[in-house]
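re the bet — no i am not wrong, look at it urself. input seq straight from the record:
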Amino acid sequence: MSDDGTAGGDITAGGDITVVGHADLTPGTLLLVEAALRTRLARHPARGTAMVRTGAGAPLASGRAARASGHPLAVVIPTQAGVPAMPPPRDRMATGELLTLADQVRLLSYDPTDRDSCIGADERLVAAAGLLLAVWDGSPSNGRDATAHLVTYARARGVAVEIVWPAGAAREAVPATGVRS
C-alpha cells in the first residue's frame, strides 16, 4: 500500500526503489524496519533495484531487506574529486556490510560529513526512482534529519511514496544539546 492507502500497482516498472530514513534507529527498531522493508519489497517486482546511500540505520536495514527479498541492491558511495570518500566513523562498519551485500556500487559526488550535501545526494536518488520507501516516524525535519523533506520532495516530483514505520519502532534519544552521547 502506498501512504495514501491505494494499492499502487506496479509502480516500480519504470524505475528503481530508493530507500531513505532515519539514521538514529534503536537496535530493536532496526530489526523491525528490516522485516517491514523485506515485506514491502517482496510486493514489488524483483527487477527494481533497491538503492541506498551508505550509512548506518535505515540504509543498512534496507540493504539487508533488499537481499533477503531478492531485489538487486545498489549502494551509493560518496566521491570527492572522483575518489571514493571515507565515510564518517559511525557509518564505516555499516558501509562495509552494505558493500558486501551490493550487486552494484554507484559513485556519487557528495561530502558524507556535510548534511546539505547528503540531502542533495538523496534528492538525486529520489528523483531517479519510481518508488520511495521512507523509514519515517512522521516527524518534521529538525536540522539533523531530512526524511520529512525527502518525502515532500518525492511527492512534489510525482514519485510514489510508501511510509515504513512499524509498530514499536523508536529512535534513539538525543540530549537537549543535540550532541549524541
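see?? Confidence is low (pLDDT under 50) at residues 1-14, 175-181. told u. also Helices lie at 27-42, 58-69, 92-101, 115-127, 147-156. so pay up
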